[in-house]
Design goal:
Blueprint (H helix, E strand, L loop, with lengths): L1 H15 L7 H22 L5 H19 L5 H5 L9 H22 L5 E3 L3 H7 L3 E5 L2 E10 L4 E5 L6 H14 L9 E10 L15 H14 L6 E2 L1
Parallel strand pairs: 3-5
Antiparallel strand pairs: 1-2, 2-3, 4-5, 5-6
Helix pairs in contact: 1-3, 2-3, 3-5, 3-6
Length: about 230
């Protein structure tokens, strides 16, 4: 997978060196479009195979960054790019949906005064189900984000009672955390976040509980005091 990512980055650099002057978010958007087109070509040629996960993660990470900074009224314009010539429309819409949920969580956490947010490596994203790393003293948290049908935002840590879907997501995250390299030798708390979307539009229009992150940290602190918190140590 690392070879695939390196190859894709080199290909993008070669293409984009002839088009200087993009802002960072514009470049991420152009890269996402190019990667989508490349994935469609590889699929049609029967060569996609193991490229699928790495290219998909590269596209979604770029779209997450784009959607975290653009104005809300740009969402429909970006979503409408599934109609561009050579773009795999179905894949584009799926990546937009996932990236929109991740961007909502990213911006929510980034607005916290003492929080620092990082994107994982492509390998950690594609193989381990990690969408974000959230550092807020005293916790180091790996976050898995999924867009689901619904009208709420829900977050779980490892010791809470979960839905069937969130339990499956948590099991994948716990398995993946055994392989991460970002925090060697330290405890990492796994968190699963489900972002509801009932109309297929931008999740930024949802009427969500804006205190979800603070409530989650309060629960984690309470569980730690009670000695129930099961942290993952690499």
């Amino acid at each position: 997978m690392k070879d695939h990512v390196t190859l894709a980055k080199q290909w993008l650099e070669k293409l984009l060196k002839h088009y200087p002057g993009f802002s960072p978010w514009e470049q991420f958007l152009v890269e996402a479009i190019l990667l989508n087109k490349a994935a469609l070509i590889l699929t049609n040629l029967g060569y996609m195979g193991s490229f699928s996960a790495s290219l998909g993660a590269m596209i979604q990470q770029r779209m997450t960054l784009v959607l975290s900074v653009v104005e809300k009224n740009q969402w429909s314009r970006i979503q409408g790019m599934h109609k561009l010539r050579g773009v795999d429309g179905d894949q584009w819409k799926r990546h937009i949906t996932g990236a929109d949920a991740a961007a909502y969580v990213l911006t929510s956490l980034a607005n916290r005064e003492n929080a620092r947010i990082f994107l994982p490596s492509i390998y950690e994203d594609a193989k381990d189900g990690i969408d974000l790393f959230w550092l807020e003293h005293p916790f180091r948290i790996a976050v898995s984000v999924k867009c689901v049908r619904g009208s709420e935002i829900q977050a779980w840590h490892a010791t809470q009672e979960m839905t069937e879907t969130s339990r499956i997501d948590m099991e994948r995250l716990l398995k993946g955390l055994r392989h991460i390299q970002m925090f060697p030798g330290v405890d990492v708390e796994p968190v699963v976040v489900h972002v509801g979307n009932i109309n297929g539009g931008s999740v930024s229009t949802g009427n969500f509980n804006i205190n979800w992150a603070e409530e989650l940290l309060t629960q984690i602190h309470a569980q730690r005091r009670r000695g129930l918190l099961s942290l993952v140590r690499e």
